[in-house]
Design brief:
Blueprint lengths: L1 E3 L5 E5 L2 H4 L12 H5 L18 H14 L4 E5 L2 H4 L9 H16 L3 E5 L7 H4 L9 H16 L5 E6 L1 H6 L14 H25 L4 E7 L3 E3 L4 H16 L2 H6 L4 H7 L7 H5 L6 E4 L4 E5 L7 E3 L17 H15 L4 E5 L17 H19 L4 E6 L19 E3 L6 E3 L1 H12 L1 E3 L1
Parallel strand pairs: 2-3, 2-12, 3-4, 4-5, 5-6, 6-8, 7-9, 8-11, 11-12
Antiparallel strand pairs: 1-15, 9-10, 13-14
Bound molecules: beta-D-fucopyranose.
């Protein structure tokens, strides 16, 4: 049976600059924290980096064509801050802005609505050299950057997001140190967290001042958390993970306060009137979602948390993430209940599997198709239950650079041969094209 989605539902794909663009040192782009972090021995699996990635910088025309074949009506991508502002602040790199101009023209020709995310984890290294997200001034630098982008591209783009998964950028970048810039600590994570919330607020104000009629929000990352056991230590770890991972950004930005598990510890970072800046009216509620999380106590971790893999008998992806569409449905309902009746967009969802190209050149990724079918069905159920989900963006269009895991994890609907850079649609590509084409999912 085909479950149809409401008219006007958005079918999209998401990508991120550092994961696909390549051309790391071309046309005046400055380095970001990921260019530096990927050089740190042992930081990235197989020593991979994003220097070339999918070479989207030169092949974006072909990639937009692929999205056209997917019947998409929306495309979400991020801007590389250091491509347009090589030093993070000050001198503008015209060639960098021109690239996004060309991309937007193609996206418009293909009949897709662009969604721009301003920050997908790639802070200009020049700003990290001034302490990056640990320096309160970063909020102002960020706002200037946001204003520049809206001034230049706002005539063709309505939807802007201030950040992608700010929780990951702080918790992994300045907490456990597994992501750029690779800083480990508890205070550093909390400082970065507050400064990123401030940047969101100042960025929202700057964009609204620059242009009216924009639709603005932030892209959160929400995953239900369970304790691994009933032991008090594990329950505490789960509560802390829930606060850091799920609540530390939407709560202050929408509800005007930090979650209880963090509130006291955050006070040294908060200045008078900060919440007036942070808590801005959002036009939509967007979040990325992949799985359910399990936590146990770990005294060696800055926040006392270790993630626990799912029980062996549960289906899981190559990332070791449980396939749990029930958790997704619960998350969609909770988002509506907790944060009010904003239009909801799922801005990332998808799965990595060890794809193989067969002798006929085909990639029969049945597992990915079943994952997508189950998660799209959950969205359909959520809409039937009154949750205002307005769009879905698959992660991802292309196989790409998966952060600390390098090129080992393939999330794309399109397979990329990293030697030749040839793109090859997988079976899931045709499945998703059919969903988008019929505005519904067969289940
Ligand atoms: C999300 C990131 C995205 C990608 C997927 C698999 O956390 O936003 O860049 O790495 O996970």
């Amino acid at each position: 049976m085909t479950r149809r989605f409401p008219d006007g539902f958005l079918w999209g794909a998401s990508t991120a600059a550092y994961q696909i663009e390549g051309a790391a040192a071309e046309d005046g782009r400055g380095p970001s924290i990921w260019d530096k972090f990927t050089r740190r021995p042992g930081a990235i699996l197989n020593g991979d980096n994003g220097d070339r990635a999918c070479d989207h910088y030169h092949r974006f025309g072909e990639d937009v064509e692929l999205m056209k074949r997917l019947n998409l009506n929306a495309y979400r991508f991020s801007i590389s801050w250091s491509r347009v502002l090589p030093y993070g602040a000050g001198g503008v790199n015209k060639a960098g802005l021109d690239f996004y101009d060309r991309l937007l023209d193609r996206v418009a020709e293909a009949g897709m609505e662009p969604w721009i995310c301003l920050y997908h984890w790639d802070l200009p290294q020049a700003l990290e050299d001034k302490d990056g997200w640990l320096n309160r001034d970063v909020a102002g630098w960020y706002a200037d950057y946001a204003q520049l982008i809206v001034r230049r591209l706002g005539d063709r783009v309505r939807h802007f997001a201030t950040f992608n998964e700010p929780n990951v950028a702080t918790f992994k970048g300045y907490g456990d140190g597994e992501h750029a810039p690779g800083i480990r600590g508890r205070k550093t994570a909390l400082q970065a967290l507050h400064n990123m919330n401030l940047a969101h607020g100042l960025g929202m104000q700057a964009m609204r001042a620059e242009r009216s009629g924009l639709l603005l929000g932030n892209i959160y990352n929400l995953h239900p958390v369970e304790p691994a056991t009933d032991r008090p230590g594990d329950r505490e770890a789960a509560e802390m993970l829930d606060a850091m991972w799920n609540r530390a950004f939407p709560d202050p930005q929408i509800l005007g306060r930090y979650p209880e598990a963090l509130a006291e510890e955050m006070t040294p970072y908060i200045r008078e009137d900060d919440f007036k800046i942070i808590t801005q009216k959002l036009d939509y509620f967007a979040f990325n979602h992949y799985t359910r999380l399990r936590a146990k106590h770990d005294s060696n971790h800055p926040f006392g948390i270790a993630e626990v893999p799912p029980p062996q008998n549960r289906p899981q992806t190559a990332m070791g993430w449980e396939v749990a569409p029930d958790a997704f449905l619960a998350q969609l309902k909770e988002a509506k209940e907790r944060y009010g009746n904003l239009p909801i967009y799922v801005t990332e969802n998808g799965a990595a599997y060890p794809d193989t190209v067969d002798a006929q050149g085909r990639i029969k990724d049945r597992d990915r198709i079943e994952y997508l079918r189950a998660y799209l069905t959950a969205i359909h159920d959520a809409i039937a239950a009154g949750v205002p989900v307005k769009g879905y963006f698959v992660w991802s269009l292309l196989d790409n650079f998966e952060w600390a895991l390098g090129y080992s994890m393939r999330f794309g609907l399109v397979h990329v041969d990293y030697d030749t850079l040839e793109r090859r649609p997988k079976d899931s590509f045709h499945f998703y094209a059919e969903c988008a084409g019929q505005n519904g999912v067969d289940s």
